[in-house]
TrEMBL record:
Pfam families xrefs: Acetyltransf_1
Location of the N-acetyltransferase domain: 11-151
Native organism: Flavobacterium procerum
This protein's name: GNAT family N-acetyltransferase
InterPro entries: Acyl_CoA_acyltransferase (IPR016181), GNAT_dom (IPR000182)
């Protein structure tokens, strides 16, 4: 089976709905929050050349798109997804790596960042040279954070004034001198523990609020 990863064009519009459905179903399966996107939005990214798609014999196998903020000061990779039929092949890492290299050429001066709850994505990002950072180091563009409104955790983000959520912020600064291997090695145990601590803290605060409200 040959899988090709290419920059999207209008000929790929036909996959937009399937991409949206796959992203949503995957998030529901994992029980994680997600910023939903419409097929029209995905098609806009495709036509602008701000997305890459993986195709296996003409069928949709994976996808990821690029968003830029603050006039190109920051760039984010969103919607990284692999179709269920093509998982466990290392395809997510291949797509992410391709999009990463493409972003460095398309937006050479931009800091590349992301927020995620997925340990697999954190691992890929870490291997590319990203480092975990507080949300204060990410874009302040309100339109980026507005994209989180459809996420199930948006109320948590709002309550923390966009400074903290269940997601982990990660950043790659092209101006920093990179080392091989990356200087921020991925430690799954540590990040998994951090995620559990975050969840516990938010749950305790939520229970306290409910208790006070009932009184």
């Amino acid at each position: 089976m040959k899988i090709s990863i290419v920059v999207t064009q209008e000929e790929h519009f036909k996959f937009a709905q399937e991409i949206c459905d796959t992203i949503e179903s995957s998030a529901l399966l994992r029980g994680t929050g997600i910023a939903k996107r419409t097929p029209e939005y995905i098609q806009k990214k495709m036509s602008n050349g701000d997305a890459m798609i993986a195709l296996a014999d003409g069928k949709f196998a994976g996808f990821c798109y690029i968003e830029s903020w603050e006039h190109g000061k920051f760039v984010a990779h969103s919607g990284l997804i692999v179709h269920p039929d093509y998982r466990s092949l290392g395809l997510a890492k291949k797509i992410k790596s391709k999009v990463f290299d493409y972003s460095l050429k398309r937006y050479p001066d931009a800091k590349i960042f992301g927020i995620t709850t997925g340990l697999a994505v954190m691992k890929i990002n870490s291997e590319l040279g990203y480092k975990p950072v507080p949300f204060s180091e990410l874009t302040t563009d309100p339109s980026f954070w507005a994209g989180c409104k459809t996420c199930t955790n948006f109320q948590i983000l709002q309550s923390k004034e966009n400074k903290m959520c269940l997601c982990t912020g990660m950043l790659y600064d092209p101006k920093e001198k990179q080392k091989t291997p990356p200087r921020h090695p991925f430690n799954e145990a540590v990040l998994s523990r951090l995620k559990k601590i975050k969840q516990a803290l938010f749950l305790n605060k939520l229970l306290s609020f409910i208790f006070l409200f009932k009184i």
